[in-house]
Design brief:
Elements lengths: L1 E3 L8 H15 L7 H4 L6 H7 L4 H19 L5 H22 L5 H26 L14 H10 L19 E3 L20 E2 L1 E3 L2 E2 L2 E2 L3 E2 L4 E2 L5 E5 L9 E4 L4 E10 L3 E6 L2 E2 L6 E4 L3 E6 L8 E9 L2 E12 L8 E7 L2 E6 L12 E8 L5 E8 L3 E4 L7 E10 L2 E2 L4 E2 L4 E2 L19 E7 L4 E4 L4 E10 L3 E6 L2 E2 L6 E6 L2 E6 L8 E9 L2 E12 L4 H6 L4 H5 L1
Parallel strand pairs: 10-17, 28-35
Antiparallel strand pairs: 1-2, 1-4, 3-8, 4-7, 5-6, 9-11, 11-15, 12-13, 12-16, 14-15, 16-17, 18-19, 19-22, 20-21, 20-23, 23-24, 23-25, 23-26, 27-29, 29-33, 30-31, 30-34, 32-33, 34-35
C-alpha cells in the first residue's frame, strides 16, 4: 500500500524568488510542447501520438461542444439514461476531434485536454489578478489570454461548467511512500500518523513469487479527517451535589470529558456568560478547569457546562455555594423575670451567611463586672429560659448566631437589664385542666379455649383494663361462681385468673369473665374440656350420692 506524501514545507523568500524565475522560464519556452516532451519524450510511438498537444482547430471544436453541451456533461446524472446520454456526447466530441486531427484521440484524452485548458486559463487569471494588486510604478508581468482561453473564461462563469468529469493520475514526479514495510495477506489496512486536513493518493500492489503487480490507484484523493467521537462529560461524583466552600478559600474544579475532534467548551453562570476577570477558565483536549483564587459569596450559583463537537453536544450543571459566618440576631428581648429565672426571646439574623443557621450561643454578664459567661451552646430555638441566677444581681444577656462556618463575629445584647429581686415574686401557676383517664372495661387479652386433665389443677387467664378499676365476675355456663371451694379467683396488675382445683369431666363447660365499672362492662368466654376420670352420670350410676359428687 502506497500513499503520496503531504505538501512540502513553506518555501523561504530566496526559494520563492527561484520558483518565480523557473515559472518565467517555463512561460517563455517553446509553445505547444509539454514538459514531458522536453524531458525526453515518450517511450512508445502510439503513446506519443495520444499525448501530443491538441491543435488550435481541435481545441476550437472541443470548446464549441463544451459550450453547447456543458450543463449536460458536467451536471449530476440522476438516472442511468442520463449517464448513457453523457457518455454518448463525449463519444461524439471524440469523433469530431479525430475527424479533424486524425490522431485517434481517446475520450480520456479529450477530457484531459479540457481540464488542462481550464487549469491553464485559471492560472493565468490568478496571475493577472495578483499583478493588478502591484503598486503603481512597480514592475508588472501580465500574461495575455489567447482567443481560446478567453472563450474558456466565459464558459467558467456558467454554473456547472467548472465541475470535474475527469480525475487525472498524480504526476510521476510525486513521491510515493510505502505505508506497510512488511507484506500483509489481508485486504484491509489502516495508515496511521497522517496529518489532519491533508489529501493523499493511495495505490495498492499485489505481490507473489514472481514479483509485484502494476499498482491500482484509488480514483480520488482521500481527505484525512479526524474520526468524530461524540462528546461526553465525566462529571466527578463529588460535584453531583452542591459544592460548598468558605469565603476566601480557593475553588479548583477539574471536569474531564471526551470527544474528537477537540470539543468546544462553553461555561455559563445562572444563564449568563461568566466574567473571566473574576473566574478563570482553562480548557484542554480532555478536561476543563474552573479556578477561583479567593472565593466570594457572589461566586455562588449554578454553573452550566456545554461541550460541543460539530452538531453533537453534552451538558452538565454544577451548584457552587460559597458560605460565610452569619450576622448576629436582629433583636434580643427580656420577656419575663420571675424568681431566679429570666425568659428571653430573639429574632433570627437577616444574613445567614448563605448557609442554614445551626444554633445559637447565649451568654450572661453581671452588670457590676460585665464579664460574660456562656450559659447555652448550640441552642436551636429562638426563645430560652435562663435559670439559677443570683438573687439581688442585675444581668445583661447577649446571643450569637451559628452556622457551619462558626459563630457570628458580633452578638446582639439586650437593651435592658434583668434585676433578680430579693423578695421575689409569687409564682403564678397556670391553670391546667385535668386529663380524663376514665374509660369502660376492655379486655386486652381474652380467654383461650383450654383442655385440662382430670385430677390436675387448671387455670384460666385474661387481662382487662378500665378506669375506675372494674369489678371481676366469673361464671360457669352463665351461672355466677360464688363461695365454691373448688374455685379460686384472684387478680394482679389487671391480669385475672380462675383456678379450678382437681377438675373432673363434670367441671367442663363454658366459662365467662365479666368486668364491670360505672362506665360499662365487657365479657370474655372460653370452653374448658376435662379429659379422663368419671363423668357426673357415671358416678350417679355407681350409686354415689350427689352431695358427695359435688364435694
Amino acid at each position: 500500500t502506497l500513499f503520496r506524501s503531504p505538501p512540502a514545507e513553506e518555501l523561504t523568500p530566496l526559494e520563492k524568488r527561484v520558483e518565480a524565475l523557473l515559472q518565467l522560464a517555463n512561460l517563455e519556452g517553446t509553445p505547444d510542447i509539454d514538459d514531458e516532451d522536453l524531458n525526453g519524450g515518450l517511450d512508445k510511438e502510439g503513446e506519443a501520438d495520444r499525448k501530443a498537444n491538441f491543435t488550435d482547430e481541435e481545441l476550437d471544436i472541443l470548446v464549441d461542444n463544451i459550450a453547447k453541451f456543458g450543463p449536460k456533461l458536467f451536471g449530476t446524472p440522476s438516472t442511468e439514461s442520463n449517464i448513457e446520454e453523457k457518455n454518448k456526447i463525449w463519444a461524439d466530441i471524440q469523433a469530431k476531434i479525430n475527424a479533424v486531427g486524425g490522431k485517434n484521440r481517446s475520450i480520456k484524452d479529450v477530457k484531459k485536454a479540457w481540464n488542462d485548458l481550464k487549469k491553464k486559463t485559471k492560472k493565468k487569471l490568478a496571475h493577472n489578478k495578483s499583478q493588478a494588486l502591484v503598486k503603481s510604478g512597480g514592475p508588472s508581468n501580465l500574461q495575455p489570454l489567447t482567443p481560446i482561453e478567453k472563450r474558456v473564461e466565459t464558459l467558467l462563469n456558467v454554473k456547472g461548467i467548472d465541475a470535474e468529469d475527469f480525475k487525472e493520475e498524480p504526476e510521476e514526479a510525486e513521491q510515493w511512500i510505502v505505508a506497510n514495510p512488511e507484506l500483509t495477506d489481508k485486504t484491509r489496512f489502516t495508515i496511521n500518523g497522517l496529518p489532519t486536513g491533508s489529501k493523499i493518493f493511495v495505490r495498492v500492489k499485489a505481490v507473489n513469487a514472481a514479483g509485484p503487480s502494476d499498482p491500482r490507484l484509488h480514483p480520488q484523493p482521500i481527505l484525512v479527517k479526524e474520526v468524530i467521537e461524540p462528546p461526553k462529560i465525566r462529571l466527578p461524583r463529588h460535584l453531583k451535589q452542591t459544592y460548598i466552600r468558605k469565603v476566601g478559600e480557593a475553588v479548583n474544579l477539574v471536569i474531564p470529558f471526551v470527544g474528537k475532534p477537540r470539543p468546544k467548551v462553553s461555561w455559563k453562570k445562572n444563564g449568563a456568560h461568566i466574567d473571566k476577570s473574576q473566574i478563570n477558565i482553562r480548557n484542554s483536549d480532555c478536561d476543563t478547569i474552573i479556578f477561583i483564587r479567593k472565593a466570594e459569596r457572589s461566586h455562588s450559583g449554578k454553573y452550566d457546562l456545554k461541550v460541543k463537537v460539530e452538531n453533537l453536544q453534552d451538558k452538565a450543571s454544577i451548584d457552587i455555594q460559597i458560605v460565610d459566618r452569619p450576622g448576629p440576631p436582629q433583636v434580643v428581648m427580656i420577656e419575663e423575670v420571675w424568681g431566679e429565672n429570666v425568659a428571653l426571646e430573639w429574632k433570627p439574623p437577616k444574613d445567614n451567611g448563605n448557609a442554614n443557621i445551626t444554633g445559637y450561643t447565649l451568654q450572661k454578664a453581671d452588670k457590676k463586672t460585665m464579664e460574660w459567661f456562656t450559659v447555652m451552646e448550640h441552642y436551636h430555638r429562638t426563645c430560652a429560659t435562663i435559670s439559677e441566677l443570683v438573687i439581688g444581681n442585675e444581668y445583661y444577656f447577649r446571643v450569637f448566631s451559628e452556622n457551619m462556618c462558626g459563630l457570628s463575629e458580633t452578638a446582639t445584647r439586650t437593651e435592658k437589664s434583668a434585676l433578680i429581686e430579693k423578695e421575689g415574686k409569687a409564682y403564678r401557676c397556670p391553670d391546667y385542666k385535668d386529663f380524663d383517664f376514665t374509660e369502660p372495661p376492655m379486655f386486652t387479652q381474652p380467654l383461650v379455649h383450654t383442655a385440662a386433665v382430670a385430677g390436675y389443677n387448671a387455670t384460666l387467664n385474661c387481662s382487662v383494663r378500665g378506669n375506675p378499676k372494674p369489678q371481676i365476675i366469673w361464671m360457669k355456663n352463665r351461672i355466677i361462681i360464688k363461695d365454691d371451694p373448688r374455685y379460686r379467683m384472684f387478680s394482679n396488675q389487671s391480669v385475672c385468673t380462675l383456678e379450678i382445683r382437681k377438675p373432673n369431666p363434670y367441671d367442663g363447660g363454658t366459662y365467662t369473665c365479666k368486668a364491670v365499672n360505672e362506665y360499662g362492662e365487657a365479657e370474655a368466654d372460653c370452653k374448658l374440656e376435662v379429659k379422663g376420670g368419671l363423668t357426673f352420670c357415671g358416678l350417679l350410676m355407681q350409686g354415689v350420692p350427689p352431695p358427695v359428687i359435688d364435694a
